[in-house]
Amino acid sequence: MATENADKAPKEPNLLLQSIENFGKGAMGVVADIGGVSHLAFQVARWSLKRPYRLQNLFAQLDFVGVGSIFIVALTGLFTGMVFAHQSSRAFELFDAESMVGPTVALTLTRELAPVFSALMVTMRAGSAMCTELGTMRVTEQVDALETMAVNPIQYLLVPRVLSGLIMVPVLTMIFNTAGMGGSYFVSVVANAISAGTFLNRTQQWLDPIDLYEGLIKGAIFGLSVTLVCCYKGYNASGGAKGVGQATTQAMVTSALSIFILDFFVGVMLH
Questions:
Q1: What are the 10-residue block averages of pLDDT along the chain, 271 residues in total?
Q2: Closest to 76 in 3D by CA, of 158, 203, 177
Q3: Rounded distance, CA 92 to CA 101, Å?
Q4: Which residues have C-beta within 8 Å of that of residue 126, sequence separation ≥ 6?
Q5: Are 224 and 125 contacting, i.e. CB atoms less than 8 angstroms apart?
Q6: Counting beta carbons within 10 angstroms of the beta carbon of residue 148, is it exposed (0 to 12), middle (13 to 18) or buried (19 or more)?
Q7: Strand, helix or coil at 153?
Q8: What is the rounded CA–CA span in Å between residue 259 and residue 190?
């Protein structure tokens, strides 16, 4: 009887098999997302070259992504430059090298912090809105309505959004650089009494145009990546309001991860 009861008792799931299965599902999901985003990028590139060009939609997205993000990007850049200059000056005081605060902040901002933080600000402000808007249009069948009216939804909805990220994130990167260097100058010269001439001369001596170009290239790549991911998640959302919320959450996490991953690989390729 004990043997029969043991056979009839429910068997506990094998945790190892479950872990392997979950890992496999996650890996397949990542591969599927990479393939979907790549295919979407190809479709966007193809439809962006076809008439009609829908410039009104493009300018509306340029205003939303770029102009609407100026304040938050400038404010973030200002305090980033101030904090980094303050911490750098304290460290350089140990070696009597306060004159290196300016070029250190400038190189760090132009190469890394400006494109990364600008893209993150665009992700949080504009990317989430893109994903939610497209997801809502998908679950309410507005995308299907466009197709029935012989309007290609990729050309009408996605091309302006992706191009706006590609164009405006480098512009926001330069705004971040300007605000960051302004904050750094204030902390270094006004608060810490470093010579203004030394600050400016050292910065001009060590900062090259190639450093600015690297940041702009990264900004363009990050902007393209963020808008593609957000548009892909929103365009393929399903399951009503809950599905739209899940798609937006996934888009934010994936966009942030893509920024940091691409930052490493693009930085390696440019050096």
A1: 51 74 81 88 91 90 94 96 90 82 92 95 94 93 89 92 95 96 92 87 90 94 95 91 92 94 92 75
A2: 177
A3: 7
A4: 64, 65, 68, 69, 165
A5: no
A6: exposed
A7: helix
A8: 34
